[in-house]
Design goal:
The protein has 17 helices and 21 strands. It is α/β, with parallel strands linked by helices and about 525 residues long. The strands form four sheets. A six-stranded antiparallel sheet has the order 11-12-21-20-17-18. The longest helix has about 30 residues. The relative contact order is 0.08. About 0% of the residues have low confidence. It comes from Ancylomarina subtilis.
């Protein structure tokens, strides 16, 4: 399926600015819709799908801050990138903008190339977010894990005999409830009653919001209503169900379509699983090594034994120095796994090339390595379509130091044994492949007896607490780690056990990697 051209909503009271931005976006192949105030923008979001929103900060009728706050209350736009334009350069103003829900800001007057670079970067991110949000509906392989959504009118008299459908059916009666449900649940199919005017009127928005990954069926009341059928055929409809048919035939059509999807998923699942087993890129589930008085441990678990995007690699510089890389290709399971070998190839070749060159010291400047690898990845058209986080850690037992640089990874945790204090290290950086000239800082940390460095991928913080139904999150993860990290020597298995029991985690819905270095 070809990707649709990104659709951007531009909000500004200045007609000249609107036209200039429209001209710029058209030049890079993007579609734009224009609005002169916040109220007009809100109306346009009700019936159309936008991949990104650009708004002036100072608008008539509704301020830009009010606009972004209201946009964020709409389920389908909670993660849509929102960029402010303004000539206000005060830091406090921008902080307020970000707190209200904006993702970025561009100061006026802006250079066209800077504007285009930021827009493209955010479009890539929104495409990635959609893939991550929709991952479960692609891969869940049994009836009890997939739902059918039935969109109907609140007074609709036509009832689907739900007891005969082989997978759960959720009845939805409003657009707000529909988009909210799509964000939270794994939906296999959407069935829309043609009397549900609220859903029929936003068919295009539903299709684009779901990236056409979810089949849409229409229940037709009158097969001779050519005007309605002509309208429906202009949208992305997978099949039509006719109310005049015996209900057993309708149910048979629904169950058959779900069974076909199940068979197809199983077919590709088996093929991909075979490919993964034959891949030369594999990672041990557990890794443990000592370098003098430094101990290194890794736990690496693929989700449900399926290949995924997490990876790690170790390199020996000499007897006293070691390099470790921990990465996560964003996406889930196979979508991410296909890119892991390519990233590993870039990393291995780059490290091996510079390993013994005097002009480059990985231990002292891991950020430089990230800049080199980022430039290579950005130039690769295939890899630039996805994002990856990557941390590189250098360990030197001779100087009792570690160094670390990060490209978009979660902030690592550092435990200072002398102060009995666990903190997040302020080492962040742009995801690999987003912009070509990204700069990455190198943090060098003295390491004393009992000190510990812990890195983790999002499979841990995105796990769900079964008791509360909420995602764990970084703060809760940090507090749980505090309960075990003060021991002089710890095992990663103990940390994971602590997390599972104290946070009520029965399963992880993503592959996960936990990395520890400690000084004995």
């Amino acid at each position: 399926m070809a990707k649709h051209s990104p659709h951007i909503l531009v909000v500004d009271s200045n007609t000249a600015t609107l036209k200039y931005i429209e001209f710029t976006l058209t030049g890079i192949g993007y579609k734009s819709t224009l609005a002169k105030n916040g109220l007009e923008a809100i109306e346009k979001t009700k019936n159309q799908h936008f991949d990104l929103i650009i708004s002036d900060l100072y608008l008539p009728l509704m301020s830009g801050n009010d606009l972004v706050r209201q946009i964020r209350q709409t389920p389908e736009y909670k993660l849509t990138p929102f960029i402010f334009l303004s000539d206000n350069k005060e830091e406090e103003t921008w902080i307020q903008n970000l707190n209200d829900g904006a993702d970025d800001f561009i100061t006026k007057p802006f250079k066209q190339e800077v504007f285009i670079s930021k827009i493209r970067a955010h479009i890539k991110k929104t495409q990635l977010r959609k893939e991550i949000t929709d991952h479960s509906r692609k891969h869940n392989l049994s009836f009890d894990k997939g739902n059918i959504v039935f969109c109907t009118h609140k007074d609709n008299k036509f009832k689907l005999p739900l007891q005969y459908i082989k997978t759960p059916v959720k009845i939805i009666k409003s657009d707000k409830n529909l988009f909210s449900y799509l964000k939270k649940e794994n939906v296999w199919r959407i069935i829309i009653d043609d009397n549900a005017i609220w859903a029929i009127s936003i068919l295009d928005k539903i299709s684009k919001t779901t990236e056409q990954l979810i089949p849409i069926d229409i229940l037709i009341s009158d097969s001779k209503d050519t005007d309605k059928i002509d309208y429906l055929l202009t949208n992305h409809i997978d099949s039509f169900l006719y109310k005049q048919l015996d209900e057993r035939l309708i149910i048979h059509q629904i169950n058959s379509s779900v069974q076909q999807e199940l068979n197809l998923k199983n077919k590709y699942f088996n093929a991909l699983n075979t490919a993964a087993k034959q891949s030369p890129v594999r990672f041990e589930n557990q890794y443990n090594e000592d370098i003098h008085d430094f101990n290194i441990q890794v736990i690496h678990q693929a989700y449900n034994k399926l290949a995924g995007g997490d990876f790690y690699e170790t390199f020996d510089v000499d007897k006293q120095k070691k390099i470790i890389v921990v990465g996560d290709v964003m996406g889930k399971k196979w979508d991410a796994w296909f890119f892991v070998p390519a990233y590993i190839a870039y990393i291995r070749s780059t490290i091996n090339f510079f390993m013994n060159r005097e002009e480059f010291d990985f231990i002292k400047s891991p950020g430089k390595f990230l800049e080199i690898i980022n430039q290579s990845i950005f130039k690769d058209l295939k890899l630039s379509e996805v994002f990856t986080t990557l941390s590189i850690i250098g360990i030197c037992s001779k100087t009792s130091q570690i160094s670390i640089a990060s490209a978009g990874a979660l902030q690592p945790l550092f435990y200072n044994a002398k102060e009995n204090k666990l903190t997040q290290l302020n080492i962040v950086g742009t995801l690999l492949g987003v912009i070509p000239d990204a700069h990455y800082l190198s943090l060098i940390q003295d390491f004393n007896q009992g000190d510990k460095l812990l890195l983790y991928t999002d499979g841990y913080v995105e796990a769900v607490n079964d008791r509360t139904g909420s995602m764990i999150g970084e703060d809760v993860f940090l507090n749980s780690i505090k309960q075990v990290v003060s021991k002089r020597t710890i095992r990663l298995a103990d940390i994971e056990t602590q997390l599972i029991h104290t946070l009520n985690i029965s399963k992880f819905d993503d592959d996960r990697t936990l990395f520890l270095v400690q000084k004995n």
